[in-house]
Amino acid sequence: MTETAVTPPSERAVRKATPGEARAPRRSGRRRIALPYLLLLPALLLELLVHLVPMLMGITMSFRELTQFYIRNWSEAPWSGLDNYTVAIDFDAPVGQALLKSFVTTCGFTVLSVGLCWLLGTAAAIFLQEDFRGRGILRTLFLVPYALPVYAAVITWAFMFQRDNGLINHVLHDQLGIGDSPAFWLIGDNSFWALLVVSVWKGWPFAFLTVMAGLQNIPRDMYEAAALDGAGVWKQIRHITLPSLRSVNQVLVLVLFLWTFNDFNTPFVLFGKAAPEAADLISLHIYQSSFQTWNFGTGSAMSVLLLLFLLVVTGVYLLLTTRGRKTSDV
């Protein structure tokens, strides 16, 4: 009668895995690591085709003397080096002066538009946090400008800003009696304010939607505890709401800044190919410098300079906000 050998528990615990068993977890781990990259591959390829390739072509054009004579085959345009950049940043010459003035106008317009969009969106989101009858209807109405197509919305505003038969002058001048005569909104100095109104009208619902989503993550217990301690509404907003929305606002302000500074559709649809001097945003200015003067080399150089400016501002903003977040956490 044979005896069956029994492996002690200590020996079973330290028994080494076979080579096949050791390789199996490694393979599954590599598959898990590679899966996100495989899922992102179609989006990366589409980004390459839609954005990166045209951007590289634009950078190449900025170093060439590309005019209407070389449109059919732009690769044969003479190489100009940094001449297009020199022309663009020569602020003593008419081209550089016009670009600098457009840049300053765009900066002022962006600061006002982003500030008003954030203020209106945040105020509306905080107001609609309270439960009351008709809150769902108001939320839907507030999101209408964001849901409308840009061209349809801006064309509607262009009709409303007409001097003789527009709704704006009918209300301000005919009904309220403001001004001696109907104002020109699409030409002259008032064009800046007309463009600002349209930009804020179509941009603040995005801020409202983003802030409203961020408010859902703030526990109601914090507001109840603050109310028991005697804190009013403004103190609750200052010490609870705004600090809790810091990370949301950091992303929101950056997105609004990039969208507003690069906005081409709004001024183009509102004013046409030639914007008034008071509302000459840099995106439309670059378009005019390229397609009206047929100097695509200089226009490409202006676009590259704009890209570099936005990259620098974005990098500095992210650096400052990241440091501020780490300091507050400490």
Automatic annotation (TrEMBL):
Residues 1-25 are annotated as: Disordered. Pfam families: BPD_transp_1. The chain crosses the membrane at residues 33-53, 103-128, 140-160, 192-215, 244-261, 300-320. Residues 103-317 form the ABC transmembrane type-1 domain. It is a multi-pass membrane protein. It is found in: Cell membrane. It comes from the Bacteria. InterPro entries: ABC_transporter_permease, MetI-like, MetI-like_sf. Keywords: Cell membrane, Membrane, Transmembrane, Transmembrane helix, Transport. Belongs to the binding-protein-dependent transport system permease family. This is Sugar ABC transporter permease. It comes from Streptomyces tanashiensis.
